[in-house]
Structures are given as structure tokens and as C-alpha cells.
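User: Teach me something about this protein's shape.
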Amino acid sequence: MYFFREYTKPNKDPSKTDKITRIYNNYSACKCCIHKNNCFTDKQTHRTITENGERMQRVMHHKMEKEEYKEEFSKKPYVEGPFGIFKEQFHIKQEIVIGVVKTEKRLNLDALAYNIKRLYNLKQEKK
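Assistant: First, the predicted structure itself:
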């Protein structure tokens, strides 16, 4: 497939980013293809593939094709769980602490509480 053109559609919601549409086509490949009868009618000469999406989504998609990023993002589910629990049970978003040091101390206390609670539950399961 060859890149044909890219254009931007403004999003109706100004807080969101604009949508990007990329169009790919390949006349010569479609001309020689044995499956061209299945893809398009007699009047059509080629097939056009349109890729819709925001720029950040496309960048992320291309990153995920590389092996180093696959390893990095395979760890993500293990980290997402505890952060979800922190937000839900420990009400992190509602905490009022000012400054990086105080926020870091508060998060460390929450993590300690989470780990102690988890260890206690694991011990109870073994008994």
C-alpha cells in the first residue's frame, strides 16, 4: 500500500483533538491481484483503505508494533490494578496535600496500607 494523502477533520468538541484521516491505495497491486473480483466492481480500478484516528492513537499503534514496547506495555495490567484500588478505596483524588514531598509521602502511606492489607488477606487464605 502506498500513502496517498492525509487530511484533518476538525472535531465538533473543541476540548478533543482533531481527527486525522489517512488514505492508502495501490493501483498496480490491485491490477495484478487474483482477488480483485471480490474486492470491487467492474467500474472500480483499485481499492482505497482509509485509516481514521487521532495522531496520538496512530503513534501508539506504531509504537506497539516494536518488540521493546510490547515488553514494556505487557507489564501495564499489573500496575493498573493497584492504582485503581488506590483511587477507589483510598480516595487519592480527594486528598488535599500540597507539594511534591507531601504527596509522595501520602502515596507511600497508601501503598504501605495496601500491601499490609494484601499480606493479611493472603495469610488468611492459607489458614
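Now, about its shape. Residues 30 and 50 are 16 Å apart (CA to CA). Residues 2-73 form one domain. If you'd like, I can walk through any region in more detail.
User: That's plenty for now, thanks!
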